[in-house]
Amino acid sequence: VSGRRGRLGRRGRNPRFQWFLTPEIVGFLVFPIFLVFLKPRSYEIFLSMGTWKPVNPAAAKRLSDARRQLHHAAQLATAFGISYLPKKPDDSHTNLEWIESEQALASNALDGKRILVRVPDLTLMIGEQSLPLRDLTLGSAWEWIRKTLESSGLDGSRYTLKRHYEIPSHPVANGAKFNARDDDLDQLARWYSNAAQELEMIRANDSMASEVRCWPHHFDIATLIIPSEGKSVGAGLEPGDKYYDEPYFYVNMNPAPTAESLPESLEGDGMWHTSEWIGAVLPGSRLTSDSQLQQSQVQEFLRSAIDTAKRAVMQA
User: DSSP 3-state assignment of 199?
Assistant: First the structure.
């Protein structure tokens, strides 16, 4: 097409063709051809996903406080699954789904009812009811949730914040009020949104990949790929932990290879993590500051790391 445009331009400025090969028209003609090559699940994801939201790599290491506050707020949604849903051996009744349209982490549902935590402004949502958590305590939120669930027809007395795992401590767990910085919450929302989008595309193109879910214990959003029985590759985003106090994409594998058997480099400026667990990581602070290149860098990292991990577990 570009060659035809070039020849037309050199041969003459024919007005009948000047409008025909505009970028808009070319896109209109090529787009349906592109869709033909997408798998059905990919097509569904392509239509529903948002665009990449630029993140600030320089801010990645300052999100610790907001992340821990959000982690505790998310337990209010996880508590819905613990309180009302049948317990599952893999703990999937407790996990959370990223809802792009709401920019929220949502519990599993019961009869259409669920609890959401909208990340950019740290707001609880149940149906049409909402409660901003800023300047409130966990206790106040718990009371509001119980009353709201009661009014929706559920037994509010069953709603409990008791859980079978520990999460990183924060003063909000002991009665302090939520006061996370808005710009830090916005950055966390962008990391989760981008991760959900990229992981959904991985799932769409790999029939062995699980649903993309956020796990309330470690607070990572991830998918698990099972290339063969007893072998797995996990890909996800951890918003920060004791290993890296910043958001980071990761790919791990089971059985884990030895550190000596790993290739020297990864695409996308990723690196190998070998302390306590073996896996590929791309810390947020290593992401390019060029917002136009951030998505391709993450995709290059995930693609190369997943391909390497699959080969490693199949050879184990």
Answer: helix
Length reported for the chain: 316
Q: Give the DSSP letter string of 46-79.
A: HHH--------GGGGGG-HHHHHHHHHHHHHHHH
Beta bridge pairs of residue 271:
281
DSSP 8-class letter at 259: G
The tens digit of pLDDT for each residue in 135-182 reads: 999 999 999 999 999 999 999 999 999 999 999 999 999 999 999 999
* Cβ atoms of 117 and 124 closer than 8 Å: yes
b/e string for 204-240 if b means 16 or more Cβ within 10 A?
bebeebbebbbbbbebbbbbbbebeeebbbbbbbbbb
| Token digits of residue 211 | 């649903």
Nearest 5°: the CA angle 22, 48, 306 is 100
The CA distance from 66 to 183, in Å, is 9
Q: What pTM was estimated for this model as a whole?
A: 0.85
Gap between the Cα atoms of 179 and 71, Å rounded: 13
